[in-house]
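(Structure overview)
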Amino acid sequence: MGAAESKQGISGTAAASEGSSKAKLTFPQNTQPLQVTTIYTLRDAYFGKRLVSAFTYDPSQLELDNKQEFLPKAIKKLKTIRHPSVLRFIDCKTSSAGFHLITERVVPLTEEYLEEISEDEILVGLYDIMVALHFLHSQCHISHNNVKMGSIFVSNGRWVLGGMEFTGTVAESKETGLTSLLSQELVPPEHQGKPTKTTQEVELPHAVDVWQYGKFVEKLIQDGLLHFGTTALPLDAMLQADPKRRPTGDAILESDLFLRNNTVSVVRYCRLKGLDKLQNAEWSQSIMPKLQMLSPSIMEKFVLPQLLTQEFFAAEGFDIVYRTLFTPQPPRPLISEETYRTLVMPFMIKLWTYRQADIRMTLFRLFEVYLKAVVLGEGGSEVLGQIILPEDFRMLIQRCTWLRCLDWRLLSHTPFLSQLSLMPT
């Protein structure tokens, strides 16, 4: 089909999406592209009032006979694949400039960015990308087929996998010829030269991605950004010429490089959901020394977003963590004073709006720890008078005896508050 027919097919796909959202896509004036490839241009944009990223595709630049199938399939896959480590789809629009794929706001991963962050942050990023790939292989039964730096983006410090244009089953990759658009260094041995009977029979979703991932890691090592022993990661196995001998994603995630790294270990645990009491108890015994080994940037980018959540706060056994976090100047601070003011204090105050018994219990147990910080902070009297005390009095009229006892204990601090001239005497 020709280019006109291709654009018509793409417009139909976009129109269906546009019906679900009336927000307008706009580009700030004089905005420079963040990334330019042979397939798309990436820019910051606004979708309504929301800051987003827009990937703009010009269908006439695609060099495939069946190019009318290219974008609709890519959009469909990105819309249906939901994972924290996969670029999050928002909407799609068409304009005279081309077809716009709208996603969460991200920046492309670049060599300059890699040089500015620590090796531990790189390892967390590599871990997240392999988690995303393993999800595609094991749950979606598809291959990404385009694993490289240009397909990785950064969202609030977290690496997410994009570049989904080539994603599909092994059979789809062979039929569409999408691999013809890949640069030579991304083509694994089994797809170089004439296909043999052996390579044609291989239908392992992980084979191509693991090889490409291995080449990316190899480049990071060559550039001096990663340093680890030969046994820490099965790199040689990942780069095997025989696709059947390459390890699967779960085997790579269980390698020493990730399992024995303190940063990856902590981040990995903090992201786990639904752990039982025994698992939480085991971790609560060892988490403080692990947290104290982390750099402030790791704490702020990867750990705090997990700790400062209603779900994690309600888990049993972590009073020691929050006792340290909620103290303005502990002996061994985990975070900076600025982070305490801008992130931790607002979280503490918000917790008082939840009436969950386990959350309220932990708040009472830690009340003496953060009382002065909240009351003496900016707007402390308003917080006390408009949030904490009203919530406390509401709980006093509840029928739960143990909660009433805790509330009376809280009110026993009233003389202290009066001395601070924040309450009428």
Notes: The chain has three domains: 3-105, 108-259, 352-425. The chain is about 50% helix and 10% strand. The longest helix spans residues 119-140. Residues 108-259 form a domain with the Transferase(Phosphotransferase); domain 1 fold (CATH 1.10.510.10).
